[in-house]
Amino acid sequence: MWFFALSGWVGQDYFSPQSFTYLLYLAFAAVLLRWFRGPGRPPPGGVVPGEAAVGATTPGQRTVLLTVVLALFAAVVPSHQLTPFVMLGVVAVLVVLGRCALRGLPLLVGVVAVGWVCFLAEPYWSGHFDELFGGIGGLGENVTSSVTGRIEGGSATHQLVLYTRVGLAGLVMGLACWGWWRRRVAGYRERALPVLAFVPAAGFALQAYGGEMALRVFLFALPGAALLAALAFFPRAGTSAEERAWDQVSPAPLAALLAGLVLVGGFLVARWGNEAFERVRPGEVAAVEWVYAHAEPTARLLWLSEDPEESVTPALPWGSRAMERVRYVPAAAPRDPVLVAPLADALREAGPRSYLIVGRGQSAHLELDAGYPTSWERRLLAALDARDDLVAVVRDADASVYELRDPPPGPVEAAAPGPPGPMVTWTPWSVLGALSAGLLVLLLAVREVLRVRAAPGSPASPAVRGLFWFAVPLLVVVLASLVHRFWTLA
Fold this sequence. Notes:
7% strand; alpha/beta; five-stranded mixed sheet; 57% helix; two-stranded parallel ribbon
């Protein structure tokens, strides 16, 4: 638990979709490994499994626990685009290795995840096809953009933070590999923990995730890696009292303490080293609130980006409300802060009721992440103040908001929130596929319930076998519908 807490520097310790689904992922894995762990193949040569034996449960208890597993997965699928596929990969490998007794669960949750993406999430992926699927198979490119691509450029301070993160992740994963080896030498065969620690790395083959895939891979690998890292120091956990006592008088406690102290020092740099642009300042909040108050019927808020095509997430307290009335437009931040004429031109092109915001968080981001000079913000504000066609409507130590003294003529855009609910392009084939997917999920769930209610180790009943063959044609229809859906995508 100490290693796990000290390695939680990935930056999801706020009310984010990832933090919520991460909790559900941990509960999902815990239930599978505590109550549905399969017996697996007995290790040869007197080697014993690293996990404790599964406790006895009644058919009713197993049914309730299976319902909990399915509910956890169903809650994750619409909440986050990455977590359900990590869960699917973990449970699939556990089944293949014989460490999960729910042999039909990978197919069931796979249909749920793919059905949601292809039928109900179509309004998003149809407009972001390359974003979601363009990186599939590009393992080297995805790793590069997530690791070395983030380190290139920027200030020496920011590079120190990124190198520290790489070093800490490498330390924890290295200790995990050492822990697996020491358990093997001690006579134990670990199968479940390596799955938790290393299966998330398959995410590199899916997409770059905006350059954050390495962070997410480490976040998902951390539960298994932290346990294996602890076993590197105390490999005889679970053995006789005499052998455990030897661990307590060996150098292991001191070594574990020193490793923890390294993680403590590294945590302060890895988690808080970017605080200069990650923190939210009161003046920035007040500036954005002013824009909200003047966004009638709409407004365009220009913010400064080193690359308006790629860097499209502002270092601002943005998007908390009025999403249908405020459009956030990235504008190229000039390397030479004196050359601000393009910013004034961008305000004119944006039309009436358009504003330019210069915040301390943005400037710190440009200085640390993009290598802008430390005096850049001060010189930029002086150049903006010197222009006769711009006026500062908000002035604060943390943020300033500018508008044109003579806004361009023309009507202000009307708010266009769009219709409520998901807009799905339904065709006869997609309707048939969606209905087949729903029925397939129901059949597979009933089949799994029948299996868990049977005595452990008993052969499959005729009802279980029959439901499988009923599910096969439904699966074919669903797959054909998905092929048709992608083939006819406009």
